[in-house]
Amino acid sequence: MLDVGAGTGIATRQLLAHGASVTAVEPGRNVLARAAERTPGLRAVLADGAVLPIRDSTVDLICFAQSWHWLDAASRTPEAHRVLVDGGRWAAWWSHARADADAWFNDCWSIVERACPGTHRGQRDIDWGATVGDSSGFDLHDRIAVPWQREVSVDGWITEQASHSHIALLPEPDRLRLLDQLRAVIDEAFPDGTMSVHYETWLWIAVKA
Ligand SMILES: C[S@@+](CC[C@H](N)C(=O)[O-])C[C@H]1O[C@@H](n2cnc3c(N)ncnc32)[C@H](O)[C@@H]1O
To answer: How far apart, in whole angstroms, are the C-alpha atoms of residue 6 and residue 79?
Structure first.
């Protein structure tokens, strides 16, 4: 199988642990080097997931752990279709915090939406399965939502927020101001420095027709 947009290999290692034969595909040289360091014996390819250096009809499963949205929208579906065997599967998933019932969470989103034009909380609800539906040569097979609770330190949460591209790409003063505002909200909501946050992972699976 292919783990496309493997990043530092978080999903790759879990797939390997489940006994899959995995090739990691990732266009970022530095993160792929990190994945290789952390994953002994990793089979990895430095490539764009929408231009795969992989032969036709050779892959049983192609998966995208929080990466499908980065690929070129016109070429990603035909490219995934090309490399899969007949009956092979496409899977994509995203994990998002969904603590929408909590005031601190909505305050944080409001801060991010004000500072990052084009980014909004509704983007968590995109139906990614629809991008491989209809005349794409795939049949949508399943949509699964898995709720879970994440325990994370306030520092860990802030570090992760800072790594999101809509924040990381802000001009330095705007980025620092935004992170200060987020920290003020979170420090008040979690004075002991640890957070427990409701998450959901949404997974779509499609089968090559
Ligand atoms: C949010 S990270 C997910 C990393 C990893 N799969 C995980 O879940 O931790 C998105 C990854 O997609 C990669 N990416 C961006 N554009 C891509 C493309 N055109 N083809 C394949 N991967 C891409 C990024 O370099 C990044 O590693």
So the answer is: 17
